[in-house]
Amino acid sequence: MAEQSAALSPLLKQATPVLAARGEGVYIFDEDDRRYLDFTAGIGVTSTGHCHPRVVDAAQRQVATLVHGQYTTVMHRPLLQLTERLGSVLPQGVDRLFYVNSGSEAVEAALRLARQATGRQNAIVFQGGFHGRTMAAASLTTSGTKIRAGIGPLMPGVVVSPFPYAYRLGMSEEEATEFALRELDYQLATVSYPQDTAAIFIEPVLGEGGYVPAPAAFLRGLRERADKHDILLVVDEVQTGFGRTGDFWGHESAGIRPDIVITAKGLASGFPLSAIAASQSLMEKAWPGSQGGTYGGNAVSCAAALATLDVIEDEGLVANAAQMGERLQQGLAGVAADHPGIGDVRGRGLMVGNEFTAPDGSPDAETATRAHKAAAEKGLLLLTCGPHGNVVRMIPPLIVTADQIDEAVNLWSQTMKEVAA
Ligand SMILES: Cc1ncc(COP(=O)(O)O)c(C=O)c1O
C-alpha cells in the first residue's frame, strides 16, 4: 500500500494504491515484493517495458559520459544520432526536429510554429481531445472540464469541432465520420474563417477523452480540408506514436501525410523527451529565436530513445502491438459479452478502452471506478479515462506476451464477476 507524503500537494490523485519499488518488463513490484501486471505503462510511456536491459545499459553508459550537453550551447552525439534515426521512421520529408521535454511543451511548440508559419491565429481541435496542461495546451484540450476549470481566461482562437465518437453519438462509424466532417465544414463557414485558421490538431486515437480511434476516412477528410484551405494538419502522436497502435504512427493506416508530428511518451521508454517534426520549408517559416529551452534533447534521454528504437525494431514490437492488441480486444469483448454494463470495447493496437454504461444509456463512472480499484487489488494495474471517467483503459508495454494478455483478461474477467456480484 502506498504512503502519501504529507508534503505532496493534496490535489494529486493516485490511480492505484501501489508504492512501486522496482519495475521489470510488464511488471511492477511493491516494497513487499508483490507483483502487479502493469497495464498502465506509466500512461503509455514505458513502451519497451520497465527497465529494458538495453535501454538501461544505454542510459547508464550515457550518464557516465555526458548527462547534460545543452544543445543550443554545445552539440552532442546522442542527439545527432537520434535526429538522423528518427528521420527513418517519420513521414517522408517531415523530418526536421525540435526537442523539448514533455507532451505539453511539444504541443505548445507545434502551435507556435503553426501560427508563425501561416501568419494565422486559429486552431481547430476536436471535442474530447487532450493536448496537455500548460496554458496553450489546456486551451486546446476538451477531454474534461477539470483541465480548463478556474484557470481562465484561456488562449483565444481555439475552435472546438465534434469528434466522430460513434458510440456516444449512437451512430455507425461512417455516419459519425460524415457528421463530424460536416460539422467541421460548418465551423469553417461560421466560426473560423479558413484564412484565419493556422492548424487542425488531431489525436489519431482520443486518449484521455476515452480511447476512441479516429476513423481513417475522418483523418483523410481532415487532410483534404487542410489542403483545400492551406491549413496545417498537426497530428498529436504523444500517446499513439512509437508503435502503440500497431503501426509506428497512429495516423499511418489512413495514408495521410501530416504537416507536423508531435511525439513524446513511448519515445524514450520513460526518460523525459518530446519533439515536433516538420518539413525543412515549414520550420524555416518560424521566426528566429522562437525555439529553444534549457533541458530539451537531454543526452541521457536521447541515448534511451536510440536504444528504444533499436528494441522496437529488433524485437518486432510494432507487429507485436498489433497482434497482442487484437488478442486483448477479443478477450475483453468476451468479458463484455457477459457484462452488459460494459457497453463498448474499442481501441487500436495496445490502446484499448472498456466503456461502462448504465442501463439507461448514461455513462457509469461508478462501476468503472469500482472495477478499476478491484483490478488493482487482484494485481492488475489499469487507468480510467473519458470525460466522465467511465472508460477503463489498458495500455500494456509493447513487449507484452500472449500469456500476459491472457493473464490480464482472466484477472479482468474475475474482477467483473466480483464487481457485478
Ligand atoms: C495526446 C496527448 N497530448 C499531449 C499530452 C501531454 O503530455 P504531457 O503530460 O507529457 O505534458 C498527453 C498526455 O497524456 C497526450 O496523451
Short description:
With 421 residues, the chain is an alpha/beta fold. Helices cover 38% and strands 17% of the residues. It has helices spanning 41-44, 53-63, 77-87, 103-118, 135-139, 166-169, 173-190, 216-229, 280-285, 299-314, 317-338, 365-377, 402-420, and strands spanning 20-24, 27-30, 35-38, 96-100, 122-126, 158-161, 197-202, 205-206, 212-213, 232-236, 260-263, 274-278, 342-348, 351-356, 380-381, 383-385, 391-394.
Distance between the termini: 25 Å
Q: Which small compounds were modeled alongside the protein?
A: pyridoxal-5'-phosphate
Strand order of the largest sheet: 4-12-11-10-7-5-6
The best one-word shape is: globular
Number of DSSP helices?
A: 13
Q: What kind of assembly state do the chains in view correspond to?
A: single chain
Order of helices and strands: EEEHHHEHEHEHHEEEHEEEHHHEEHEEEH
Provide the residue-averaged pLDDT: 97
Helix content: 25-40%
Radius of gyration computed on alpha carbons: 21 Å
Low-pLDDT sequence parts:
none
Structural class, judged by helices and strands?
Answer: alpha/beta
Determine the CATH topology of the largest domain. Answer: Aspartate Aminotransferase, domain 2
Number of strands: 17
Q: How would a crystallographer describe the biggest sheet?
A: 7 strands, mixed
Strand content: 15-25%
CATH superfamily of the largest domain: Type I PLP-dependent aspartate aminotransferase-like (Major domain)
Q: Please identify, by name, the CATH architecture of the largest domain.
A: 3-Layer(aba) Sandwich
